[in-house]
Amino acid sequence: MNVSQCMCVVVTAERLVAVFLPFKFRAVVRPRRASIVVCSLYLFWLGATLVYIRKFNFNFRYLSAYQTCVCDYDLKLNGDEVMFDTVCTWIACYVSLAIIIIGSLTIFTKVKSASRRRGKMTSSKTASCSRTTRTLLAVCGFFGCMQIMRLPYTTSSSFPDRETFMIYFVFVRLASNLNSASNFIIYVILNKKFRKILKTMTCCES
After folding, report:
1. DSSP notation for the chain
2. Cα-only R_g, the chain
3. How far are the Cα atoms of 88, 107, 190, 195, 197 from residue 201, in angstroms, in the given order?
4. Which of 70, 121, 150, 162 is the most buried (most CB within 10 A)?
5. Which residues span the membrane (predicted)?
6. CB 40 within 8 A of CB 21
7. CB count, 10 Å around CB of 45?
């Protein structure tokens, strides 16, 4: 999820540049720069994940009453690793979410204001940019809503007992799966090009 959150931050930043600096957009946002940013994010969180994996102690137990296997785990971190874990948690859960929400609201306000001033967009390029912005705003907005519901899961101390925590854990997993499956649906609903592609893929030509 950390990579997903940071990617939404990158998308939000890209749309902010597109909306507020439309004439400098192509000079600022270039394929090479985008590739560097994306690869850097993946490498950073890959390194963080490898650190965590080394520190986990797993204990698998078989519950004959339920005929299933469960896994208990314990995470042991030293002082520096605890600080690193805290920083990663804040970046992934709070800072990124704040950027996504504030950025999305700012973009939405700017686009609405520009639309009212123009009355009606006549330029196909402007309309295309508007469709892209609207689609990505919907993706980031839905992602932000799912992440807000996930925030209490960051610490089990927010729950009165383990049973309540496990019920919420199932809910969080469901929300995560919905978020992962929603992007294509949002693209198809809000973007004409995706609808056309879907129609081409699913309809047989006579």
Report:
1. -HHHHHHHHHHHHHHHHHHH-TTTHHHHS-HHHHHHHHHHHHHHHHHHHHHHHHHEEEEEEEETTTTEEEEEEEE---HHHHHHHHHHHIIIIIIHHHHHHHHHHHHHHHHHHHHHHHSS---HHHHHHHHHHHHHHHHHHHHHHHHHHHGGGG-GGGSSSHHHHHHHHHHHHHHHHHHHHHHHHHHHHH-HHHHHHHHHHHSPP-
2. 21
3. 41, 32, 18, 10, 6
4. 150
5. 34-53, 89-111, 132-153, 165-190
6. no
7. 19
CA dihedral 132, 135, 136, 141 (to 10 degrees): 150
List the structure tokens of 59.
């204990």
The structure's pTM equals: 0.63
Contact 16, 103 (CB under 8 A): yes
Q: What letters, b where the CB count within 10 A reaches 16 and e where it falls short, cover 106-116?
A: ebeeebeeeee
pLDDT tens track for 7-49: 888 888 888 888 888 888 888 888 898 889 889 988 888 887 7
Q: Which amino acid is at 16?
A: L
Residue 72 has which token pair? 């208990």
Q: Which tens digits make up the pLDDT trace of 45-66?
A: 888 777 777 777 777 777 676 6
Cβ proximity of 190 and 138 under 8 Å: yes
CB 72 within 8 A of CB 61: yes
